[in-house]
Every structure is written in C-alpha cells, then in structure tokens.
Amino acid sequence: MADIVLDKVSKSFPDGTVAVQDVDLEIADGEFVILVGPSGCGKSTTLNMIAGLEDISSGELRIGGQRVNDKAPRDRDIAMVFQSYALYPNMTVRENMAFPLKLAKLDKETIDAKVDEAAKVLELTPLLDRKPANLSGGQRQRVAMGRAIVRQPKAFLMDEPLSNLDAKLRVQMRTVVSRLQKQLGTTTVYVTHDQTEAMTLGDRVVIMRGGAIQQVGPPQELYDHPRNLFVAGFIGSPSMNFLHAAVDDGTLRTAVGDVPIGDRIRRELEAGDAPRELILGIRPEHFEDAELVDDDTRRRGAEFTAPVDIVESMGSDKYVYFTLEGERASAAELEELAADAGADFSGGGASLVTRLSAESTVREGEDRRVWFNLEKIHLFDPSTGRNLTLHEGRSSGALAD
Amino acid sequence: MSGKLSENKKAERKLGWLLCAPAALVMVLVTAYPIGYSIWLSLQRYDLRFPDERKFIGLENYATVLTNEFWWTAFGVTMLITVVTVAVELVLGMGLALIMHRTLVGRGIVRTAALIPYGIVTVVAAFSWRYAWTPGTGYLANLFGDGAPLTERASSLAIIMLAEIWKTTPFMALLLMAGLALVPEDLLKAASTDGATAWQRFTKVMLPVMKPAILVALLFRTLDAFRVFDNIYVLTAGGNETSSVSMLAYNNLIRGLNLGIGSTMSVLIFLTVAVIAFVFVKLFGTAAPGSDDGERR
C-alpha cells in the first residue's frame, strides 16, 4: 500500500502530439481516485504511465515516496485490470490468478491458499478449472479482478474495467468494486469515460480534458461547484442546461426571461475586459412546475412560460423538455462535450431539460409556467469557460452579494 | 411456408454445387487424374527402355523400392534436411517476425527487404550458391581454405540446408507474423504488470496464444521441405549420397525412364506427405491462422 504522486507529469509522442500535460496529482494511501473525461483526454495515458506501460516524457512519478519513472512495470508492484480483461486464454481461471504469484516465485501452498481466498471473495470457486473462453463477461471481469487482488499490490490501476459489461451487470459490479476497495483499503486509480461511474465510485474525481486536469474533488463538490463550463457540462445526467445570456443594464437577457444579478457578479462584469455575453447554466432539478412552488420558495427564483415538447415520466419524477426561442449557447467546451456524447444532432433551436415533481400535471403540447432557482444558477465566460459565480471554490448563484 | 423455405434451400444448394463445379472439374483434371495415373503406373513393370516387358505386377515395385538401400539413404537425407531446416527456420523466422512486428519506422521497407530471398527463383538462387561455393572463384569457398565443400557429403548437406533456410525463413516469418498479430496488446501489458520479464511474456503468453499459427507454419514448411529438390539438383545433383527422395524419383522416372519404379517412389512421397499432414492436423490440432484455439471445447 502506498500513496501515488504525479509531479508535473507530461507525455508527448515523437510526432509532437502532447497526450498529457503537467499533471499534478496527489493520491493518498488507500484513496479511490477516478480519472474521467471524454475519449482522447489523456486519462488512459496517465494510467499507463503510472503502470509503467508508457514512458514519462517529463515530470516525476512517485509511488510510496519512491521515484519510479524508470522502473519497469514488474518492479512497481501495481496490479492492473483492463477493459478487455486480458485473461490468458491458454490458462484456467486458477492459473490466471496464480500467474503473478508464480512469477513472484511463491511456493505452491501459499499460491493455492491465496488464489482460493481471492476466489472465495469474488465467488469464483466453482469456476477455477475453467478456461476464460467458457466464462461469461461478468465472470471474466471477476477473474481479472481476482488476478489483481491475489498479489496484494501497492495499488490497483483499473482501465475502464466495467465498460464491456451490459448496463445491469455494470451497476452490480460497481458496488462489488466499491466494496472490494473499501475492504482491502488499497490505493486505486480508476479510469472511466462514464460520469455516472465516476460520481458513484470514487473518493475523489479527476476530470481531464485535452491532457490537462480541469478539476479535482469529491463528486458532490464537482457537481455543485464546477470550476468551468467543461466540468459543469460533463458531470450530471441529464446534463446541465446552457443558455445564451446577454448582459444588459444590470440584468441578463435570456430565453427564460430576464435574470437579475447580484453585486458580486455585477462587480466582475464591470471590469474592463468583462464579457458582454455569458453562458447561463442551470441543472434540470433546479426547475419546478410553478403550480407546485410555495410562496417562500417562489421568492428565491424566477418564472417563465414555454411550450412543452416531451414529457418523460420516470415514476419518481418527470423529465420535461421545453422548446425555447433564441440562439443556443455556444462554446468550444460545449461542442467538445456534444461531440463526445455523439450528439452532433440537436434538432435545431434551444431546448431545456427540466426535472419536475411527479405530481406535476404537465402535458405535452401545452404552454407551461415553470419556476427556477436563482441561487443555483452558474454563469460562465464563453471564451475561457470560467465559472464566474464561483467564489473561493463555492458557487453562490447569480444573486450573491 | 416451411416447404417453400426448404425449396429455397434446395435451390441454393444446387446453385452452390453449380458454382463449385468448374473448380472441382479443374481439380479433378490437374490433381486427381495425375495421382490416379501414377498409382496405376506404380503397379506395373514399365521401363521405357524395354517397352515390351510392360505388365501388371501388383505391389512388386513397392517391395523393390522399400527394400532398396538407396531409397532409405535418400529418405534419411530428406528427413534430416526437413527436421534441421524447419527447426532452424522456426527459430530464425520467429526472430524475424518479432523484428518486423515491432518495427516502427520504415516498416514497409523492412518487410520487403526480409522477403527478398523468398522472391528469388529457387533455381537461380541455387546457382548463385553453387558459384559462391565453387573453389577458386566463389567468394564463400575461399573463406574455408582450399577444400571443395560441394564435393564432400557433410559439407554438401550443410550447404543445401543453408540455401533452403536462407530462402524460406522469410516465408516462415510471414506466417508467424500473422500469428503475432493475434496476440492482444493488453495481454502483454497485463503480463508486464503481473511481473513477467520479456522472456516470460514471450514463452508464457505469446507462444501459447500463437500456437495455432506456429503449427500451421510448421505444417506448411514441413510438407514443403520434405519435397526438397531444386537446391539439391543444382548444388550436387544428388552426388555423394545427397539425394532426397524427390531427387531419386526424378532420376528413376525421367533419367532412368523407369516409369514403374519412379511412379512408385512418387506415390510413396505422396503418402509420406499425407501422413505428416494427418499427424499435424489430428495430433496437434493444427487450425487455420486466425481461428481461436481456445474456443474449442
């Protein structure tokens, strides 16, 4: 067991592409850290550098306080789980799990004992004599995990270990991974492109984009106080709504009506180089059917009326999509997020996703009055992506003084 | 509905046969007929120098050949050449395949260069080897003192094997490279993190996964090597007991005009090759490259 420190770690390839740039990250002993981001953001490269499968171009990597930049993977005492599981097809489950122990030249009894114990934890005992070809995806995944835990390494590195499983099994395995990590207390670095996995699994989440870290923090903090447009858009499902907002005479003119701004934001916007156009971000759950809002709550927000496009009833609440007039918010970050999600088709116009109470009587096709919480609004600078509502790391809405 | 379906299926099967027919017909003409004809010839006393003595004698030719010491000497030489060349080719070919697989810069040039020996006509290459080993003028013979290596049995066989290996190692490498491509990168990465050295990754992970491809390569090369002819014909013409079975069959059939004995030898070579192929396929489970050995239950 050990801590892992990345000190200005960079990776550039001979052709000049920079995959990872100046990554600073301190992972405490026993911590569960998730690296998340769209494809090509450098998360897997970072993991491979920690594993020693990829050379570090510059910077220093320390595991347990020791510089390991030039150490081979086998001398770093880490175990890795791959998306493809990477089980040796010619070996049985038992042989697969025993392989690292055999290479470490442990005696046969110790190996058998360790493999049996790991098999019991992962409920693999009845499968020990099978070959990987005769296992289901979930079973293979568990064997891969088993091969990692038998060695009791300093750290686990997991490269999208659940991505090849079907949705239901993935949710189930998520809890298995989480429980296992808590039980063993082994430092774990976990790479995923799935923000739900990132939110549910880790102690801390590292969001990466274009080889650089965007924000590091506990999942809830990233959700509530995103530092920039990219983080705000990446975390959350359905994702945050982004609307174009024009600064005009102390208010913001948006497709959901005029939004008042507080003194602190006003001061920011009075600076010489302040943008005249902003992006307003608001999460679906900060909307409510205006009929269902009590007076006290109503005062903290604003209301607008818009035509209802689609209603999706989830049972516990309703996702309601509204069509809005006016232009859509645009920024490089948003386009990147849309491209990563495969959503290059938007259907034209601006639309709004809201999560309303299940009691709402909203129907498709009607115009509906909707309330939204002004304290939960984020304002972003479209050119830099910076969250202007963030003050000392906390987001305080548009009205903050 | 189901009747119609099966009718469709019948029509499809008929079409399948029709489409196969031309190829099957050509196969019969060019393979089955000559094979059948040699078997027929091998059952006769048939020497073109004494055409009048032609007659059906059953398996007498086989008895003659199989009790003849020349045949067994040639058989031994062929086996020696086969085993040594295939073994050396496997090792060298694997090395070459690994180099070609790992090459990052100039991959195309490296591969092309490695394949040049295989692209040269065997007879042409054999003549250049003969020149190289000719005392006085040859650039290789002079390196080894005054001897004439192609006039002694051991050195002649060594040179024949050298020429064979030089020529067919690239072919072996090509087949093995196809096998290397089957080894998933993740598997090697996993082995690295599991603590395997480069050699352990090669022997414990790569070789087992490549096994089907290796067996196919061995099968192809063994069958080929057993029929060795060109190099011997050019380099020694079978002198000093360096004849292979193919060489012996040629000498009897074409030079000696003894159709009966020559055909018998051809049939015996054919049978040996068939036995080798059978052993590879049945005993080692040789499969086509790309098929997953692990899937078989």
Properties at a glance:
heterodimer; A: 401 residues; alpha+beta; Rossmann fold; OB fold (Dihydrolipoamide Acetyltransferase, E2P); six-stranded mixed β-sheet; B: 297 residues; mainly alpha; MetI-like fold; 2 domains; disordered C terminus; Carbohydrate ABC transporter membrane protein 1, CUT1 family (chain B); transmembrane helix (chain B); transmembrane (chain B)
CATH hierarchy: architecture of the largest domain in chain A: 3-Layer(aba) Sandwich
Specify Rg of chain A, calculated over alpha carbons.
25 Å
Q: Kindly, what is the distance between the CA atoms of the first and last residues of chain B, rounded to a whole number of angstroms? A: 36 Å
CATH topology of the largest domain in chain B: MetI-like fold
Shape category of chain A: elongated
Structural classification of chain B: mainly alpha
- The average pLDDT value of chain A, as a whole number, equals 89
Number of strands of chain A: 22
List the secondary-structure elements of chain B in sequence, H or E.
Answer: HEEHHHHHHHHHH
